[in-house]
Write a structure and sequence with these properties.
- The chain has 677 residues and is of the alpha+beta class.
- The protein has 5 domains: 77 residues; 114 residues, OB fold (Dihydrolipoamide Acetyltransferase, E2P) (Beta Barrel), CATH 2.40.50; 270 residues, no CATH class; 46 residues; 143 residues, 4-Layer Sandwich (Metallo-beta-lactamase, Chain A).
- The protein is built from 21 helices and 20 strands.
- Strands 1, 2, 3, 4, 5, 6, 7 and 8 form an 8-stranded mixed β-sheet that branches.
- Helix 12 packs antiparallel against helix 13 and helix 13 packs across helix 14.
- The radius of gyration is 29 Å and the shape is globular.
Amino acid sequence: MNLLNFSIIKLTLCLITGILLGSYFEGLLFEATLLTIVLILIYGLGIYIAKYQLKQAPWIGIILMLSMTCLGFLSLKLHEQYNFKNHYTNYSNFNKEQLYTFHFRVRETLKSGKFNEKYIIDLLKINTTSISGKLLLNISIDSTNQPLEVDDTFILKTQFKTINSPLNPSQFNYKTYLKKKHIYHQLFATHKTLFKLNSSQQTLFGYAALIRKKVNHSLKPYCFKPDEIAIINALLLGQRQDITKEIYNSYVQAGAIHILAVSGLHIGILLMLLNYLFKPIEHFKFGRTIKTILLVIILWSFAIIAGLSASVVRAVTMFTVVAIAMNLKRPTNIYNTLFISMFILLLCKPTFLFDVGFQLSYLAVFAIVIIQPMLYKLYRPRFKIDHLLWNVLTVTLAAQLGVIPISLYYFHQFPGLFFISNLVIIPFLGIILGFGILMIVLAILQLLPEILASIFGAIISTMNNFVQWISLQENFLFQDISFNIFQLILSYLFLITIILIIKHKTYRRIISFLVIVLLFQAYLLFDAYRSSNHSVIIFHKNRYSILGMRQNRQLTFYHNTPQFEKETLITNYIVAHNLNINAVDSLRNVFIFNEKTLLIVDSLGVYQVNSFKVDFILLRNSPKINLVRLIDMLNPELIVSDGSNFKSYQERWAKTCRVKKIPFHSTYEKGAFIYNY
């Protein structure tokens, strides 16, 4: 069976191509609109002409695919909100340094950071001008004040603040992440600077938040532990903000993090439960139609309550198509069903394509559909229990095979005991979901028996304890695995050719497999060649100094940080570049590399050297020096200031260097300093 023979698959692939192209080109909204309209008109004209021709016209299909590609490009551009006149970035007096009076509504509550509560807000006005756009709001944590509620409206006087790019190489780029959610700036405030307005207007997000609040209020009188309430919110309400870092990491290390995100697994189980529950409706006139409508309404109601997160929306969209096809008994193909849901999602929300959850979900489902039947044939169960266990095991293995490469690319770790955690958790997830929905309904009606709540809490605690036990088996957790985009692409090509050969051996498929093996080897040789360089890296770290000396794949660190082994900026850099730590030592005052000399001037302010020429100077720990005198005495090529210095000192040093025409690199502003030699 050739998948590309299905037209919806071709159209979806063209749409994806257009979205990818759109992500690499700024602007071009007018051009994309014009080209899309022209291509659609040409396609329509081609269809009209084809009616009077007996032979097929291949060019019509080509025009359609080009139209879909342009439509994907256009869809992405239409979602870039700064393309529209009423977006705040097009505000006539837009100036990041100016104070504005912001009138906004709270849209979504995010997980709080160490110092700030975080919210996504919708702008309503700037000063007196109606405006649109989303911003990230940071409010200093104050235990004496209640968190903001969704749909609350406020007035705040402050400045626009840019969202900073990462200051160290290979760090997570939060700015890019928010940009894909159409958030380009942020605001900082305290509870005292916010002025709340009376507003009776409710949005869909507000109603969903009220329902979640009502559920949590109904559960409060019962003896649930905080971790149990957090898991209930995650599994049944799609909210993970209250899950502790320890519990979250346990699920990650056990390979069961997908349990905590409402996704295809949860919606699939919910659909099966509802389909069984509503089966008697089929006996009535138009029963199947009524049943399908009820299923779709309930699924989308659940999506709204769960906050319409990306994972929930894509799962509900996928299973809406499945529910319609299943209950109306229309002949369909599973690949068509998946691609129809993908097409709808990407057309409505093209940035889903860059969402990690979106990629993981569809890759897992495709792997289950394609690989699971092949694995299931390896053993024929005789009894119901081993049939159930073998089915769960093969589904888990298939899904894991489908997501291993992309998981390594994003998370750089592989949980070796994933099959044990999934084998235990997945069969009981249906019980937890069904039992949980019943329990929530009873709690809202104030009919929930205490014993039932205790049993449900015990089930959740048992699941948490089991996951924590799995995560503690460190010998089976493989971490810090270097895996880049080239390895990702080659891995999926390798997996696809293996599947094709297993299904049907042909000369072309075997040749393709050998070519991919050769490409893997060529990449390894290229990677070895690329790694044969030397460099000096001065990382940015608030209040501390970290310096790295790289020689090929070996990296030696010099630092004064108290917990160096826990520094994620170091781990990220090593994993991304596939390096090894050669040694770790304390900082010294002079480093020599490639006939260049780096002098470190610390808080002691000692820099009088006559025995050698100084090429680079690193200022650290805010030395009280006369920089003009230092420059005149040493005449360096470059001065670097790291994160251990006061910002006021750095601003003064930067002005001095501009006057003396000496390059100045502040890691606060420019990020880590890297010198290759």
